[in-house]
Amino acid sequence: MTDHLHETEMAAYIDESASDAVRSTVAAHLAACPMCAAEVRRAVSLAARLSSVPRSIDPPRDPWPEIRGEIQRERRRRAARWTMGSALLAAAAVLLVMSVGRQARNPAPIAAQGSGALAEWRRVEPAYERSESEMAGTIAQGKTELTPTTVAAVQKSLATIDSAIAEARAALDRDPSNEALARLLVSAHERKVDLLARATRAMSGT
Amino acid sequence: MTSRSSLRRASHGLGCAVTLTLLWSAGAAAQQRVELRRALVTGGTVRVFLPLGSVRVLVGEDTVVSVSAPQAAAGKLVMAGDARVLKVGINREPGGSTPTVDLEVRVPRSAHLGVRTDSADIDIANVEGGVEVFTAGGRVRVAASPRELRVESLDGNIEIESAASVTAKSASGWIVVRGTSPDVELSSVSGRVALGGDAFARGRVETISGEVRFVGSFATGGSLDIATQSGAVTLRLPANVSADFDITSAHGAIQNGLSNTRATPQASGTGSVLRFTQGDGGAAVTIHTFKGPVTLIRQ
Fold this sequence. Notes:
The complex is a heterodimer. Chain A is mainly alpha-helical. Chain A has helices spanning 7-14, 20-32, 34-51, 64-105, 117-142, 148-174, 179-204. In chain A, helix 4 (64-105) crosses helix 7. Residues 55-64 and 77-122 of chain A have low confidence and may be disordered. Chain B contains one helix and 26 strands. Chain B has one helix at residues 4-12; strands at 21-23, 33-39, 45-50, 52-59, 64-70, 77-81, 85-90, 100-107, 112-117, 121-125, 131-135, 140-143, 148-153, 158-162, 165-169, 175-179, 184-187, 193-207, 212-228, 233-237, 243-249, 254-256, 264-265, 272-278, 283-289, 294-298. Chain B has a 26-stranded mixed sheet that branches. Classes of the chains: A mainly alpha, B mainly beta.
């Protein structure tokens, strides 16, 4: 088969904006065309993964004191288990990214919020890490669909962010009570999550 | 087996009739364009997609969407959907055969607009419905005040003049926002960010290494919140500005050209902090940097 579905037809079929007539025609094509069927499955899977990434989480109260306490405890243990400390901090940052982002348009004193944030970010930590990993993997597999200039820009930006994260993390390790440093670390994580999501979207055509 | 052409015919046959018109301008064959038109309900949605080239979106008739492209792209031009949601544009094609097309789309003033390109440049003017733009590498220029404006890019530059709430994100491309937006949220990785205006209401800027520049003054109760890892931050403010400043930097210099107050070492031991009130205060200016210099300049 050489005549495949157009991107628009697939998109309309997937997002259910196609009319019944177009939908049945596309369905008939998919039944006979493994390439298009595989492409639709890939797009649906990608959309499902993206939709599972939480956009925001309202921490019930200020998570930073607990996170800071966790970092300080971790710091004492880090000679033996530094990598775990990094993961906890990163996960904390991801949650804070979401909360800070949400507070941007409606800022409220963090200390006025409720309890349980530490447990909450620990609960969502695997989902964030999985999503970041999957998005990075998807980009690595399909990056040639973007122009070389854009791919180079994304790679350079990711390197810039990773460098910033390492720098802020090292500084925070030296000064764990510095909330300004924590916020910069959070901001860097937010830029990374955001960039990965946009690069994935640019490739997916959604 | 259904072919692509029959699918397109079926899609195009839906809803209102499509009018195909050849437009001649000054009798020059090179300027010959093809136009597709369809009805759109009030408050309907128009989604524009174009991989390469340029797309210009303008306000047209109240209940009609029209799209025009060079005659050479007539066979590639798509207009699908119904009177509630219309999709117009050129599809991405495999094997590097996607054509480079300059597209002009006219939409009802109140239409909701979504524009998606790979590297095609985007110009949007005067629309008033919600606008959402996504491009990998195209330049984006918006001169409109829709209900809400959201622009996302990877390495394309973004230029906005608007009175709407604005969210703009880039990685390496720069972002410039002018106008009287009540709420601005901007972020980049290395791209420079410039914003400002008289009686600036509310803004939040985050970059990694991108420079941040603000020129203007603040509304009473306004706020400007900037966080950057290594980007230089420069604020040009009038001598009579009234604001409360809270600036911290781990390793960057802080220069205050507004008053005699100088930065002092942070209590935690890392970096320096500058906190002071200028004039009567009231607006909140917060800047956090790791190693980017912060400069406050009196205009």
